[in-house]
Design a protein that fits this description.
single chain, 217 residues, Rossmann fold, 9 strands, 28% helix
Length: 217
């Protein structure tokens, strides 16, 4: 079995970085280091561990997925984190993207609407020893006003932006999310300007699970 020991996973992560990320334009050294360090296999079911570092999304239950490594790295790189930011994540899922963010900023606040995934993410992040993370089961469309404003917001489901998100960003802060519907999305980065305006850039076409309001228990 190729993935029986931790060293095999270390090699698999480095291959993922060298073969999937660098050739496709991921060049932020801090993002590459985080992707090489976070144990993605701990965030998927044991039966899928041998596929954890493949170039594909994987199921995590409740009709949700863990995004392919490239998309995690791409969205993270678009945030351009320097290390001292407070980041809000909408859609914790299994906690993998949360773990990557936690290595690149001061603190991550992450919201998951599905209770069972929220509990799974708590277990996964505890096992992977990521401490600078605060998790909440709630409606991500409302953001997390108690801890606003944030330096950056990352959304891991496809849809259209909630007005709450830009309201909860600091001036100069960025929102990165997959905009669109029907499984047809495009990565968008919106920066909140000091005068209250918004600067928008559009990037890769992509496919994400749908962004939904409310809480599912």
């Amino acid at each position: 079995m190729p993935y029986r020991n931790g060293q095999s996973f270390v090699r698999a992560r480095q291959r993922m970085v060298d073969m999937q990320l660098k050739p496709r334009g991921i060049d932020d050294p801090r993002v590459l280091a985080a992707m090489a360090e976070v144990p993605r296999h701990l965030f998927v079911d044991a039966a899928l561990a041998s596929r954890a570092y493949q170039d594909s999304a994987l199921p995590i239950g409740e009709g949700q997925t863990i995004s392919q490594p490239y998309m995690v790295a791409r969205m993270t790189q678009l945030l351009a984190l320097q290390g001292n930011e407070r980041v809000l994540e909408i859609g914790t899922g299994c906690g993998y993207q949360t773990a990557v963010l936690s290595r690149l900023c001061r603190r991550v606040y992450s919201i998951e609407r599905i209770r069972s995934l929220h509990e799974k993410a708590k277990r996964n992040l505890r096992r992977a020893r990521h401490a600078n993370v605060m998790l909440k089961c709630g409606d991500g469309m409302l953001g997390w006003p108690e801890y606003a404003p944030f330096d950056a917001i990352l959304v891991t489901a496809g849809g259209f932006a909630s007005p709450c998100w830009m309201e909860q960003l600091k001036p100069g802060g960025v929102l990165v999310f997959p905009e669109g519907e029907g499984g047809v999305h495009r990565l968008v980065r919106r920066r909140k300007l000091a005068d209250g305006g918004i600067d928008e850039e559009r990037f890769d076409a992509c496919t994400f699970v749908p962004l939904l309001a409310g809480v599912s228990h």
